[in-house]
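Render this sequence as a predicted structure.
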Amino acid sequence: MPLHQPDPPTGVADTVRSTVRQFAGSDHHALKALRSAAPAHVDVTTPHQVFTMNMDDLASGAGLEKARPVGWRHLVEENGKTIASSETSIAQDGKTQVPSHITEGPFDNATAEAVAAAHALPQVAAADFELRLLRIPALYFMALWLHSSATDLLVPLAPSPIGQEGQVVPAAVALSELSQRASARTGPSGPDAATRTP
């Protein structure tokens, strides 16, 4: 079966696309690739819901049942090439998804490559998996989360504190390794530069 990419709430993709195109070609932000992109050639693709876990979750030995949805992410492409990603977060009304930030860094190309590889996985061909993203900010960890009713698989994105970038790892195995590395947390900062959107 094909890897399922869920639809974000109504209007989210259009809002994100409009916001990204406003930044494209503008000199007023730090994102080099987007700054040099032509707005008409920029689009958003590959929607996936973003989930997060914190250090307390890991320390308690919790699994993905503790992962909390925090927004939606799209890849930003110029003429079909991934140049950035854009995320939304939940507004103060607790329901509406609003653009929160655009990021340009190593996780973006790693996501595009991992998604392409995931489509060819025998596990994906045999079951109905939904594409998600798992983020553990304190460990600077991001992974594709391939979710099905039967099992959960993680594909760590480069750079990963546990290695195994681009490889399919059972969720329990990856979370166990992350828990062991909790003391080596690097904090939420890293090589990705971000521009906040209103």
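Summary. The mean pLDDT is 88. The radius of gyration is 16 Å.
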